[in-house]
Known about the structure:
This protein has one domain: Alpha/Beta hydrolase fold, catalytic domain (Rossmann fold, 3-Layer(aba) Sandwich), CATH 3.40.50. Strand 7 (about 170-175), helix 6 (about 185-195) and strand 8 form a beta-alpha-beta unit. The protein contains 7 helices and 8 strands; from the N terminus they run αβββαβααβαββαβα. The protein has helices at about 1-5, 55-70, 95-100, 105-120, 135-140, 185-195, 225-245, and strands at about 25, 30-35, 45-50, 70-75, 125-130, 150-155, 170-175, 200-205.
Amino acid sequence: MANELRPCPCDIGDRFDYEGCGQEVQVEHIKAYVCKPPASTDKAVIVVHDIFGWQLPNTRYMADMLAANGYIAICPDFFAGREAWKPSDDWSKFDDWLKTRDARKINKEADAVLKYLKEQCGAKKLGVVGFCWGGIAVRHLMMTYLELKAGVSLYGLIKDSDDISNLLNPTFFIFAEKDDFIPLHQVTLLEQKLKKNCKVDFEVKIYPGQTHGFVHRRREDINPQDKPYIEEGRKDMISWLNKYI
């Protein structure tokens, strides 16, 4: 039930000491971080940040990883200029903070980013990945935008009432076995609903022994037994995109 009471709590995990290879750009009313691959491409992936915002080095690390794998990667500020959450903030005020940052009310930002990718970057094949808060956003976007050909939702919080069976294109769901905020019964329920009603390809995968944020907020070298799963999660994310974009 903790998940229902606190709809998007996160451990900060490891904040990478990472500068990023891309650049910041203005996209209509929001800012975004963009990293392009060495070779020209018409494939692009939108990277949706977690509660710690678009400037978190870890998320830029993920965007740069996607660029290294041949995608134009863009991480927009889906909070549209409002403050990201900080680990030092008062968690008792988190729910009020989150009410003004609904991961399902980002169409204005998504429209601007899609237009930018098509008109400024020449992108024709589009996908989306997102972490925690961004994982919820991915589910919303994959039910809203037919042009997004593949989605990867990483440990996006689930409520028992959530039904995302009307996904428009293939979506991959990554969860951690020991996630304090996403009970496994909710993952099971999600998978049952998808199997029953979903018309497109999907996969739900639980990574043994891992905790919330493991793909983007765990350093590979921090714990030897975790390293294979961190690397597997990242590889799976890219393989899904490669398959459908």
